[in-house]
Amino acid sequence: MTTKDGRRRPGSLEAEVMATLWAHADPMTAADVQAAIGDDLAYNTVQTILIRLYGKGQVERRRAGRGHLYWPVEDAATAAASQMRAALEGRPDRQAVLQRFAASLDEADAVNLRRLLADAERRRRS
Q: For the chain, which domains are there?
C-alpha cells in the first residue's frame, strides 16, 4: 500500500499494526508487532504508531518491564462496523451512500446482508 513516490498511504501503517494485533490472541509488545510486520520497520516507528493508537483509544496497554503490552479495544468486525457508521454520520446523502454501497456488493454479500437486516428487524419487533 504505497503511493507513486514509494511512500505508504496515510493510515496504512496504523491499519497494519491493528491487523497484527487482531491476528494475535495475546497482547503484544512493540518488538512483537515489529517482528510480525517485518518490512524493515524501525522499532521506534512501531512504538510511535502504538502510542498514537493508544491516544486514539483504539488499543489498551499495560506496563511490561520497561515497555508495554498492547491489545485492541474492540475486535476487527466491531471496528469495521464503527467505521461504516462513521462514514454515514452527519451526511445529508445517507441514502445515496447506502445505495452505492449496496450496489457494490457481490451477490453472496447482498444475500447475507438481506438476511442480517431481516434478523435485526425481527429482534426489534419482539
A: 1-89 (1.10.10.10), 90-125 (no CATH)
